[in-house]
Specification:
Associates with the 50S ribosomal subunit. By secondary structure, the protein is an alpha/beta fold. It folds into three domains: about 5-160, Rossmann fold, CATH 3.40.50; about 175-350, P-loop containing nucleotide triphosphate hydrolases (Rossmann fold); about 355-430, 2-Layer Sandwich (GMP Synthetase, Chain A, domain 3), CATH 3.30.300.20. Helices cover about 35% and strands about 20% of the residues.
């Protein structure tokens, strides 16, 4: 297990900026707006040969008793309990605040190693920036500028000296990256918490609670997964805040980064064009797909039949994907859904032998030849696999540019049936042979 460093502090003190610098990524959203980060956000950092996990947290508001800030504080406290070292970040420009004193008292009770980090100190001397913060009673403050990188290396040298030296665990097998996607407030975060068996991400009855794409490693039935809880995708005309626009971008990036996407639909609402648009993007990205119609326990029989008919009508282009009717809160249907996730992942990385593909193509031609174009008929010679995730089948022959789309779909269906490629898109590409004697001077 890699040691864990938690970044804790009031909202808008620069925790996400420091997270991005330590992980050398832009995974955490950064904007001049308090309360931007809401869930725990994990990343991998390295200082020389030492690797560690960095946890970016939402602002810790000790006085918040209810609402979204109370949930953020709950997540921050959980990150403190999981950590080996806490970097308590304060704002060097604002000076010490009453909330800083309350957070310092909480950290002392948590009995974790703490380094007090004074951020936003560019242009200040160390003694001037640190002077006011000795009164917090957490030792000598370290002054940095997370946005400029000043003092960050010295800080992390000190942090690494405090981290425990633990043997690395061998990761067994390939981790399956599973993105949970869908419109806002369909139950994505509740599904993640149900799979993990803990309140790992904020599940709050307010659309748009999740803004970052949160990556979480876990195991189920001795198989390793990485769950990706994504921000809900709204219609383009309803995305007003600049922060939410970045969340949409990160959701699309998370879909592209996943091996399998679980598209969640809300059984209490009609299937919308937006659901079909999200599904279309998943298909275009070539990701394997499992559909989960959530909140199924709240419907009567009439409504259930209506939703099933509507799903079949509006999402006919997803006939290769498995549909599951589930409840993330009860829960039920989760085991069958995860079985389909495993099957979709296996199909995405299936190895298709060239002899079997070629024989299948020949059988398809014998059963139904491609239509003529003029006096010529396309001839399919042989096929081989050109890629995985999604599987790509490349068919060679002559005059293949004349093959119509309906014949291409016929081949896709036969290949999918023969090799049991359920849950994954399949791409068939045609490459016509070039006649070396067909050259014009």
């Amino acid at each position: 297990m890699k040691p864990v460093i938690a970044l804790v502090g009031r909202p808008n003190v620069g925790k996400s900026t420091l997270f991005n610098r330590l992980t050398r990524t832009r995974d955490a959203l950064v904007a001049n707006q308090p309360g931007l980060t809401r869930d725990r956000h994990y990343g991998l950092g390295r200082m020389g040969p030492r690797e560690y996990l960095v946890v970016d947290t939402g602002g810790l508001e000790p006085v918040a008793k209810e609402g979204i800030y109370a949930e953020m504080a709950k997540q921050s406290r959980q990150a403190i309990l999981e950590s080996d070292l806490v970097l308590f970040i304060v704002d060097g420009r604002q000076g010490v605040t009453p909330h800083d004193h309350v957070i310092a008292a909480e950290l002392r009770k948590a009995k974790r190693d703490v380094i007090l980090v004074v951020n936003k100190t560019e242009g200040y001397t160390h003694s001037m920036a640190a002077a006011d913060f000795f009164e917090l009673g957490l030792g000598e403050p370290e002054t940095i500028s997370a946005s400029h990188g000043d003092g960050v290396r010295q800080l992390m040298d000190m942090a690494c000296e405090k981290l425990p030296v633990l043997p690395e665990d061998e990761e067994g097998g390939r981790r399956i990256k599973v993105a949970i996607a869908g419109r806002p407030n369909v139950g994505k975060s509740t599904m993640v918490n149900t799979l993990l068996g803990e309140e790992r991400v904020i599940a709050f009855d307010m659309p748009g609670t999740t803004r970052d794409s949160i990556y979480i490693d876990f195991e189920r039935n001795d198989r390793p997964y990485t769950l990706i809880d994504t921000a809900g995708l709204r219609k383009r005309g309803k995305v007003f805040e600049s922060v939410e626009k970045f969340s949409v971008i990160k959701t699309l990036q998370a879909i592209e980064d996943a091996n399998v996407v679980v598209l969640m639909l809300d059984a209490q609402q009609d299937i919308s064009d937006q659901d079909a648009s999200i599904a279309g993007f998943i298909v275009e990205a070539g990701r394997s797909l499992v559909l989960a119609v959530n909140k199924w326990d709240s419907l009567d029989d009439y409504r259930k039949e209506r939703i099933k008919a509507e799903v079949g009508r509006k999402l006919t282009f997803l006939n290769y994907a498995k549909f599951h009717y589930v409840s993330a809160t009860k829960p039920f249907g989760i085991a069958a859904m995860m079985k389909s996730v495993d099957e979709a992942h296996a199909a995405a990385f299936a190895k298709l032998s060239t002899p079997k593909l070629t024989r299948l193509i020949q059988e398809c031609v014998e059963h139904q030849q491609p239509p003529r174009k003029g006096i010529f008929r396309p001839k399919l010679r042989y096929a081989h696999q050109g890629g995985q995730n999604p599987p790509i089948v490349i068919v060679h022959g002559t005059a293949l540019d004349a093959i119509p789309d309906n014949y291409k779909r016929y081949l896709e269906t036969r290949i999918r049936e023969r090799f049991k490629l359920d849950g994954t898109p399949l791409r068939v590409e045609f490459r016509s042979n070039v006649n070396p004697f067909d050259k014009k001077d």
